[in-house]
Amino acid sequence: MLAPTPYFSDRGCHVRIYEEAHALCALGHDVRIITYHLGRDMPGIPVIRIPRIPWYSKHEAGPSLHKLYLDLLLFFKAAQTIPDFRPDVIHAHLHEGAFIGLLLRKLCGVPLLFDYQGSLTGECVDHGFFDASSLSARLFRRIELKINRSADRIITSSGAGASSLIQEWGIEPRTVTPLIDGVDTDIFCAGSQAEARAALGIASDVPVVAYLGLMNRYQGTDLLLESIEIVQSKGIKALFLIMGFPDQHYREATEARRLSDMIRFTGKVNYADAPLMLSAADLAVAPKLSPTEANGKIFNYMACGLPVVAFDTAVNREILGDAGVYADFGDAADLAAKIMQLLGDHALRSNLSAQVRGKALLEHSWRSRAEKLAGIYRSMICRH
Fold first, then answer.
1. Nearest to 194 by CA among 262, 276, 273
2. If you write DSSP's letter for every residue of 357-376 in order, what string do you get?
């Protein structure tokens, strides 16, 4: 597996990489993850890292010019590893990984699977790296199209992502397979709410709304603050437990909006601690704005039995189905209204809690995802 990212850094993309590798190993596959120098190793999965770059310490998602030489180092590290490891498949995460994988495929002659988690150009625009109408955007789209068309197979983290590749990018449908994110339901399950709240210093009688994940504009964090402001204006008693990073900008915005009594920031949460932290909540919110990228936090919410409020997108409906509570896309007022609806209806919360946990168990386990992925590997090897 090629992972051009500071793996592992307790965020959605990294959780997918880890859970895929972990589930594949449980099925008897031999996996090596080749990644940047930053991050930490997770138990049971061998990780090979590029040499340490002392001046580069960025763990957050998003584009960076430094990635040009980091990815070159990743290519050389993978090229050094391949002769001894002799892989049957190169499994490349993200477009940078797929580009490196194309070069490696020429060296070792094994098929390339591209693990697609969203548009590279779209991500750069979302992070403000360049404007959608710029020359850079047009150049990136041409590079992205070349990468998309060159992989032997593509798996996507959402059905919407698969549809986008086929309909908007013109990729051959037979090469694209949705393999949406999953969850380890043994690790993510509802724990003691009293224990979780005691650990966090939260009173037992306060309704708690959880958010877990990266914090930026396209994750919907700005809209979340707007919706909390509306909830406050209605005199609703609740605490919003916001877990993730980078959070300094949003801490300052919370102070400026006078929302400090409504919000508790935890900072970065270790993946192993997330189930306990989520157990403190009564419901969860997932305001991500991307129409095609995966929304992995929802799986964790579901496995912990938390009713979920999310924007009405094809990705979110694919995950939650009828067990979700949906706000109009990008509408902070409607997001606030749906949160207040759930806060005021204990019976509805209990019903949805049972539904989402059951759906996580029956439909979203990583073992079933890994079995499907292994089948894709076998078909690639037979055809190559």
1. 276
2. HHHHHHH-BHHHHHHHHHHH
Q: Is the pTM of this model over 0.85?
A: no
**What span, in angstroms and rounded, lies between the C-alpha atoms of 279 and 193?**
5
Is the peptide bond prior to 246 cis by the omega test (within 30 degrees of 0)? yes
Q: What is the dihedral of CA 92, 94, 99, 101, to 10 degrees?
A: -10
Q: Which residue is it, tokens 């706000």?
A: 327
pLDDT tens readout for residues 266-289: 999 999 899 999 999 999 999 999
Cα 263 to chain centroid, rounded: 23
Q: Are 263 and 242 in contact (CB under 8 A)?
A: yes
Residue ranges of the alpha helices (H) in 63-214? Answer: 67-85, 94-108, 120-126, 135-150, 159-167, 193-200
pLDDT tens, 41-94? Answer: 999 899 999 999 999 988 877 677 888 999 999 999 999 999 999 999 999 999
Q: Could you give the CA distance from residue 198 to residue 306 in angstroms, rounded to a whole number?
A: 19
> What separation in angstroms does the CA of 168 have from each of 130, 134, 171?
21, 19, 8
Residues 258, 289 contacting (CB under 8 angstroms): no
User: What DSSP string runs through 189-246?
Assistant: S---HHHHHHHHT--TTS-EEEEES--STTTTHHHHHHHHHHHHHTT---EEEEE-S-
